[in-house]
Structure formats: structure tokens, C-alpha cells
TrEMBL record:
RmlD-like substrate binding domain: residues covered: 2-291
Family membership noted in the UniProt record: Belongs to the dTDP-4-dehydrorhamnose reductase family.
Names of the cofactor(s): Mg(2+)
Organism superkingdom: Bacteria
Lineage: Bacteria, Pseudomonadati, Pseudomonadota, Alphaproteobacteria, Caulobacterales
Gene3D superfamilies cross-referenced by the UniProt entry: NAD(P)-binding Rossmann-like Domain, UDP-galactose 4-epimerase, domain 1
Reaction(s) this enzyme catalyzes, per UniProt: dTDP-beta-L-rhamnose + NADP(+) = dTDP-4-dehydro-beta-L-rhamnose + NADPH + H(+)
Name listed for the protein in its UniProt record: dTDP-4-dehydrorhamnose reductase
Broadest EC class assigned to this enzyme: oxidoreductase
Pathway: Carbohydrate biosynthesis; dTDP-L-rhamnose biosynthesis
PANTHER family per UniProt: DTDP-4-DEHYDRORHAMNOSE REDUCTASE (PTHR10491), METHIONINE ADENOSYLTRANSFERASE 2 SUBUNIT BETA (PTHR10491:SF4)
Amino acid sequence: MMRVLVTGKHGQVDTALQGLGDQLGLEIIRIGRPEVDLAQTDTMEDAVRAARPDVIISSAAYTAVDKAEAEPELAQAINGEAPGELARLAKELNIPILHLSTDYVFAGDKDGAYEETDLPAPVSVYGKTKLSGEEQIAAQTDNHVILRTAWVFSPYGNNFVKTMLRLAESRDEVNVVADQHGCPTYAPDMARVILAMAQQVAIDDDPTLRGIFHLTGQGETTWAQFAEAIFEGSANRGGKWVQVNPIATTDYPTPAKRPANSRLSGEKLDQTYGLVLDPWRISLDSCLDRLITQGNLVKDG
Ligand SMILES: NC(=O)C1=CN([C@@H]2O[C@H](COP(=O)(O)OP(=O)(O)OC[C@H]3O[C@@H](n4cnc5c(N)ncnc54)[C@H](OP(=O)(O)O)[C@@H]3O)[C@@H](O)[C@H]2O)C=CC1
Ligand SMILES: Cc1cn([C@H]2C[C@H](O)[C@@H](COP(=O)(O)OP(=O)(O)O[C@H]3O[C@@H](C)C(=O)[C@@H](O)[C@H]3O)O2)c(=O)[nH]c1=O
């Protein structure tokens, strides 16, 4: 049975990986706080070695985009240094590492969807530290896959879908930015693709399977359109409909700057691995089924 070490014990992606890994009969070993703190890289080695992994999936990160502006050193330790240390260990153990990165490594001034060959130029502390993580991994081992994803949502943890449903509890309308474009991505869809890739790279040393890949849900939208789809889906399931007022980014000031366009092309992933994620609208239905129809919003906290 393949042993998959995953960083993160309470996050969206690591939770989805656990759920699917169990179904597929993989041994998923999750490491995280309090035993392993990625801000203190010396807490990682014993846990990684004890897990005897066949592959590492580096999912955990400092993901509080606005808060990172005030805590750049901590964000850099977790998003920059820790992946480098994980990759060093992967190299020593002679196993592949798959690492989650972000659309926020891009500046957002491109017209079309970003390709893997486009130059990153992050505009936030979070984006800069995630780019540093990519670089530190690549410096440690060639046996790596960097997976840039975006706008992740799921029934678990914190995300935009759950934020909107929570706002609906106290508001009849909400102002949402309409000039940032991206690709929402459902964590359980990601888990399907990530585990398929992990199984392939664990047995195939073909260099074309390595390197950077973009991994997002099919289709694109804006945060305002995404919010509208969330409330329509909510109303269709007997939940509340809330009016979305589209606004400009300048009317929603935040500590961190976000890219105006962070759409990612999934073409390389499709051509290399033959893998695509589901359209985000279909996945949003699955997510809302679990959150509203099955009443998990309250339970998940
Ligand atoms: N969420 C998104 O929209 C996007 C995410 N990504 C990337 O995808 C990956 C997964 O994201 P997602 O699942 O949404 O993240 P979450 O914010 O849901 O979870 C982050 C995980 O990292 C863990 N973590 C944070 N700090 C530490 C630390 N110091 N030591 C140990 N564990 C720590 C958290 O544990 P704890 O609960 O203890 O804090 C949690 O398990 C990340 O690498 C992220 O950068 C990329 C693009 C979009
Ligand atoms: C809650 C809220 C947000 N917004 C805006 C702020 C921001 O521009 C946009 C999204 O807000 P959030 O803070 O929820 O999302 P944000 O933290 O920017 O999400 C990002 O997380 C990191 C981890 C990533 O890697 C990215 O891919 C992306 O998913 O919506 C509104 O306009 N109105 C609102 O009521």
C-alpha cells in the first residue's frame, strides 16, 4: 500500500486528501501542529522519517493573505523555508515531493490565462513567500511537482463559499469585487488529481511528469459572479438568497494587493497527465449540497 505523507491536519486540501486516500486504500499520514510546526523546521525531520513515505504532498501553508502583510517573517518561514526543508528530506529519502502553490505568484496584468512558462511577479507577501517555496523546492530536488491552484473552496476549513454563507446569516446584500478574475477550485476535485499524479510520479521517473503544473477548476469567474452563484445555489436548496452588489477593488481596500487576473491554464496538466478538474459550477453544486442540504455549515464551524 502506498504511503503518502501530507502536511496539514486541519486544512481544506489535506482534509480532502485524507477522505479520498481512505477511499482509494492509500495510507495517508498527516503531520501538523502541535507536534510538527512548519515555522520550526527542526520539528519536521523525525516525523517525516518515522512516516516512511513513498511520496510527500506539501499542502500546509500560511494562507491568511491579508494577515501575512503584517507577519512577513512567519509567512516566509512556513511558505518559503519549510517546503525547502521538506524537499531536502524527500531528496534524502529518494522520493518525489508534490507541493501546492498559488495563482497569487502572478502580478495579474496578463490578458489571457497564465501558463506555467509565464514569469511570476507576486504583489503580496503571501504570493512572494509562496514563490520562495517553489524556488526552494526546485533548488533541493529535481524530483518535484509544483501545483499552482487558486480560489480553493470546500465544505472544510475557511474559504470564500463559507464566508458568503455566513454573511448571509446577517445580511440581505453584500458588496463584492467584480474586477478580479480567477478560477475557483474544489478541494475534493484537487485531491482526485493530486493523488493520481502522486501515484504516477511514485513509479515513473519520466522528467516530463515533473516541474510546474497549473491545477484549477474548469471555467473562470470574478469574485462577484462567484458570490452570485453561491447565493443562487443556496436559494435553490432552501437557503437564503442575498443580493450581490458588484464593486471595484478600489472600493474594497485590503492590506494585501490581489492580482486582477489570476486565471490559470490547465492545458499542460491535460496534455501531460490527461487529467482535468471538473467545471467549478458543477463542483459548487456538490459543495453546497454538503454545506446546505446536509447542514454541515454549522457543524464544521
Ligand atoms: N485556500 C486557497 O484558496 C488556496 C490555497 N493554495 C495553496 O494550497 C495549499 C492548501 O491550502 P488550504 O488547504 O486551502 O489551506 P488551509 O488554510 O485550509 O490549511 C492550511 C493548513 O496548513 C497548516 N499550517 C499552517 N501553519 C502551520 C504551521 N506553522 N505548522 C504546521 N501546519 C501549519 C494548517 O494547520 P492549522 O490548522 O494548525 O493552522 C492547515 O492544516 C496551501 O499550500 C495554499 O498555499 C493555493 C491557492 C489557493
Ligand atoms: C468577504 C469579502 C471579500 N471580498 C473580496 C476581497 C478579495 O478581493 C476577494 C476574495 O477574498 P478572500 O479574502 O476571501 O480571498 P483570498 O484570501 O484573497 O483568497 C486567496 O487565498 C489564497 C490562500 C490563495 O492562494 C488565492 O488563490 C485565493 O483563494 O473578495 C469582497 O469584495 N467582499 C466581501 O464581502
